[in-house]
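In line with agreed milestones, the collection of sequences with tokenised folds has grown. One record among many is set out beneath this paragraph:
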Amino acid sequence: MFTWLPQPQIPNPPQRFIDQALRAATNYGDFQNTALNQLDPKYKNRKLIKDGQRTNSRMQYGIDLGKDWQDWVCNNIMDDYISTGARVSVGENTTTHGAHCDSWIEGKPCYKLYFLVDRGGDRAVTCFFRQKGQPLERQGTLENIVYVDDYDQLDVIDEVRFPMQQWILFNPNILHGVENVTSARTNLVVIFNDASIKVLFQRSIK
């Protein structure tokens, strides 16, 4: 089990796709939202309870980058992904993307390759949580999204500032969220459905 793992062996996208994602992030309202889970009104309008205060939650807005991007992913990463594109964190009067898990697809857990191109503020950090009395990894669906609004129910198990412009393997089946987001936090993502990820360790010999 893991929260995230760096993947330096995966090639960085050409700059034109990074630029495309950044441009799209500033005009996300011009695009149809392609991010899974984000259209459920109950989830979209959730209120977080932190330190005795109620606050809004940011959310991910998905943007389709088109066939050229999809072809690049197929040729350089994988061709059996579920979805791919850009994501931007949006929200009003809040700096927190509330704790949530991504949905399983067809009864299998999803994972994602994640490439951060704009941190959304120098102090923005990703937190992984365990809900008190619940298993670490959770099985959510599009019809039954796993999320927690009351932060008194959560214990932080990991906190990280992801490296910029490097692919990481992200385990979205563990409750996770982002703190201190003050601008358009933007990333590229490849979501895939695979319950048997293998982690290989290679000893460096000098």
